[in-house]
Amino acid sequence: MRTSEILDELPRLTKRDRDEIRLKLAELDGDGWADADDPLTDADKALIEARVEAHERDPTSSIPWAQFEEGLKRRLGE
């Protein structure tokens, strides 16, 4: 299948299928998710690590994405 055929098919897929494809592409690209011209600073990396560790110590400190998104949409009047 050619790239153009894949791109033409993407709009026909469900959101769930596109999310699955997005995850697979991220997996194939490795963990270099930051743009090369916009890397994370050491301070950014330390902040992310600290927040992940805090969440691991207390998983109840966060809410599911769907709940956050719903609240955000309400705030924005959507």
List the helices and strands and how they pair.
Elements: H1 3-9, H2 15-28, H3 42-57, H4 65-76
The rounded distance between the terminal residues' Cα atoms is 39 Å
Using the CA coordinates, give the radius of gyration. Answer: 18 Å
Low-confidence stretches: none
Q: Can you give the mean pLDDT?
A: 86
Q: Into how many domains do the coordinates divide? A: 2
SSE order, as H and E? HHHH
Helix content: 55-70%
Structural class: mainly alpha
Beta-strand percent range = under 5%
Categorize the overall geometry: extended
Q: How many distinct helices? A: 4
Largest sheet: none
- In total, how many beta strands? 0
Structure write-up:
- The chain is mostly helical.
- The chain folds into 2 domains: 1-33; 37-78, no CATH class.
- The protein has 4 helices and no strands.
- It has helices spanning 3-9, 15-28, 42-57, 65-76.
